[in-house]
């Protein structure tokens, strides 16, 4: 990619605003684009995975239920008032995103919050929602 603002990307496309500025001979800034501000794909994927996992009412209810400690999958079925297959699917999504961890005890699987950072994120989202 060029160091010039509004330059055409490696894919051969540019933004609509970039096209208009180029046609009008204007640039938004004089210096080169700060490439260090562009997020790395793996970093973006990790963040996106977490947000996607939390962007569901039932998964949020699971995380809320696990705030006070671990629960068995069958207890989470009761909390969600949902069938085992639905709960298992939501738990798999949360586990794959690193939000919950599991512990096996005999034939039972217990779930718990993997890291309090996800709870802090939800608390922050709640605080942002209150300010609207």
From TrEMBL:
- Single GO term (MF): DNA binding
- Region listing for Disordered, in residue ranges: 1-26
Q: Where is the composition biased (Polar residues)?
A: 7-18
Q: Which SUPFAM superfamilies match?
A: Winged helix' DNA-binding domain
Query: Among its keywords, does the record have Transferase?
Result: no
Q: Does the keyword ATP-binding apply?
A: no
* Residues covered by the HTH arsR-type domain: 39-132
Q: Which InterPro entries match?
A: ArsR-like_HTH (IPR011991), HTH_ArsR_DNA-bd_dom (IPR001845), Metal_resp_trans_reg (IPR051011), WH-like_DNA-bd_sf (IPR036388), WH_DNA-bd_sf (IPR036390)
Q: Which superkingdom, per the lineage?
A: Archaea
Keywords recorded for this protein, A-Z: DNA-binding, Transcription, Transcription regulation
Give one Pfam family: HTH_5
Q: Which NCBIfam families match?
A: HTH_metalloreg
- Name of the protein this chain belongs to: ArsR/SmtB family transcription factor
